[in-house]
Amino acid sequence: MEQSDISAEKNVELLKAKAETEPIASFLGTKLVELSSGYAKVTMKMKPEYVNFNGVVFGGVIACVADQAFAYATNSVHTPNVATQFNIHFIASATADDELTAECRVVRAGRRVCISEMTVTNQNGKLIARASGTTIPLS
After folding, report:
1. Which residues of 12-27 are buried (b: 16+ CB within 10 A; e: fewer)?
2. Most buried residue, 69, 107, 126, 129, by CB count within 10 Å?
3. Residue 124 sits in a domain of what CATH number?
4. Containing structural domain, residue 52
5. What is the pLDDT of residues 82-95, one digit of tens each?
6. What's the farthest any 2 CA atoms get from each other in the chain?
7. Strand positions, DSSP E, 28-138
8. Total domains in the fold of the chain
9. 10 falls in which pLDDT band (50, 70, 90)?
10. What pLDDT was estimated at residue 6?
């Protein structure tokens, strides 16, 4: 096994352990469903408290679930890895009854920058948002 494979494997295991007690995940109610090197899947059940004055889930909440998947996926290839850019396109609205699933794939994991793409869907597979982001390794 190559050294990079060992590091990625170690990062995945450490992140899985950290997911159990991460304060922001607990606060938001996100759940890490799947994690491998360069890929993460996170779910989050919507609540009535997340609905805005238009009767749909606030976009910032949708961005949160995408960002959680983004963080897990990018840190699985290199830890610590922090966001320098995050861009989201809202495709459809979500409701308080939805459970959202965010998936992130790292499309480029370089020494200086990582580039990732995320999708957010509801429990019926309806596309809610697409996002992209870049991160930089801190070490």
Report:
1. beebeeebeebeebee
2. 69
3. 3.10.129.10
4. 3-137
5. 999 999 999 999 99
6. 54
7. 30-36, 39-45, 81-90, 99-109, 114-121, 127-137
8. 1
9. confident
10. 54
Q: What is the mean pLDDT of residues 123-130?
A: 98
- The mean pLDDT value for 47-64 works out to 97
Q: Which residues are CB-neighbours of 2 under 8 A, at least 6 positions away?
A: none
Backbone angles phi, psi at 23, to 5 degrees: -60, -45
pLDDT of residue 3: 42
The encoded tokens of residue 48 equal 């009535």
The tokens for 92 are: 């459809």
Which of these, 99, 117, 100, lies nearest to 108 by C-alpha position? 117
The first and second tokens of residue 19, run together, are 């997911």
Give the CA distances from residue 76 to residues 28, 60, 123, 137, in Å, rounded to whole numbers and listed in that order: 21, 24, 25, 11
Say what the pLDDT of residue 79 is: 85
User: What end-to-end distance do the CA atoms of the chain give, in Å?
Assistant: 23
Q: Are 122 and 98 in contact (CB under 8 A)?
A: yes
